[in-house]
Design goal:
Number of strands: 12
Largest sheet: 8 strands, mixed
Radius of gyration: 18 Å
CATH class: Alpha Beta
Strand order of the largest sheet: 5-6-2-7-1-8-9-12
Bound molecules: adenosine-5'-diphosphate, magnesium ion
Number of domains: 1
Structural class: alpha/beta
CATH superfamily: P-loop containing nucleotide triphosphate hydrolases
Number of helices: 10
Oligomer: single chain
Length: about 280
């Protein structure tokens, strides 16, 4: 944003309409928009948004990734792009180009350094999101994946409003009783916002010992099946815990490209195929 983050102020109703109108025009060159959310932080939204985007790009789709997590923005780190900055000119903002041609926009590309805190209250966050969407030149894309912050607050409501025709949401859960209650809120949010629920992904489902093949459940009871049943949805995937995810991150590598034969990468590949079939045949949603 050429005015810098300090220039953000809250929005009047009239300004909101104008920004939303501009944003919708910018987004009209994108075929499918998918929101990745959860009630919770730390369940793997960013990991899965990033890997799903990469997997779609690997399948030759033109893909964009929008990181809506203003405070905990981390897609740039997951993609090893933290040194890059967004470029803005009279035409608007050009997304950063990531691996496999992935187009990425994240708040991290606008701040001085990764430990710079962004201290905004709700109206400013909404304004920043609206402004960003009204300025980004995505170009023609097959998919835009939106990585949401935890919870169902200002960012989620604003994005639902600004983007408008979201094809569907993927709700991420993890095992454990606490997760079930909190993730339910995200599911209810999709229903109340009129966003089709594509399904639920259970991340960190289990750990398979590479030596013995024994399966362990360190986070406890599965939540994915129960949530899917309770909300008449589907469990799209169960992704295991894989220590190589952190290793790939630490080495600035992308997990699915680095470990394509792992169970987690295979589950992500199947997830991408399922998402494509659901989104391109919307009667199933
Ligand atoms: N299946 C997994 N196995 C091991 N580590 C994982 C897995 N999924 C995510 N992680 C790690 O857990 C941490 C939190 O994930 P992240 O995607 O940032 O969560 P969120 O976006 O929901 O807050 C990250 O360090 C990520 O690399
Ligand atoms: Mg995140």
């Amino acid at each position: 944003m050429n005015q810098g983050l300090d220039g953000i102020h809250s929005t009047s109703v009239g300004e909101s309409f104008t920004l939303i109108g501009k944003a919708r025009r910018k987004l009209s060159s994108i075929k499918h928009k998918i929101m990745v959310l959860s009630g919770k932080g730390g369940v793997g939204k960013t990991f899965l948004s990033t890997m799903l985007s990469l997997e779609l790009a690997r399948r030759s789709y033109r893909v964009g990734l929008f990181d809506a997590d203003i405070h905990g923005s981390s897609t740039s780190v997951m993609l090893g792009l933290q040194q890059l900055r967004l470029y803005a000119d009279d035409e608007g903002i050009r997304p950063v180009e990531g691996p496999l041609g992935l187009k990425v926009v994240s708040m991290n590309f606008m701040i001085e350094s990764l430990d710079t805190p962004i201290i905004w209250r709700g109206p400013l966050k909404s304004r920043a999101i609206m402004e960003l969407f009204s300025m980004i030149n995505w170009g023609d894309l097959d998919y835009l994946v939106i990585d949401m912050p935890p919870g169902t607050g200002d960012e989620a409501i604003t994005i639902a409003q600004v983007v408008g025709d979201i094809d569907g949401a993927i709700v991420i859960t993890a095992p454990g009783l606490m997760n079930e209650a909190i993730v339910s809120r995200a599911i209810k949010f999709t229903k109340s916002s009129g966003i089709p629920l594509l399904g639920i992904v259970e991340n960190m489902s289990y750990y398979k010992c590479p030596h013995t093949g024994a399966i362990h459940y360190p986070l406890g009871r599965s939540t994915g099946e129960h949530l899917a049943k309770k909300y008449s949805s589907r469990l799209l995937a169960k992704i295991p815990i894989d220590p190589n995810i952190e290793d790939a991150l630490a080495g600035g590598k992308q997990f699915i490209l680095e470990y394509p034969d792992s169970e987690a990468s295979k589950a992500i590949a199947e997830l991408a195929a399922t998402i494509v079939s659901l989104v391109e045949k919307p009667t199933n949603v």
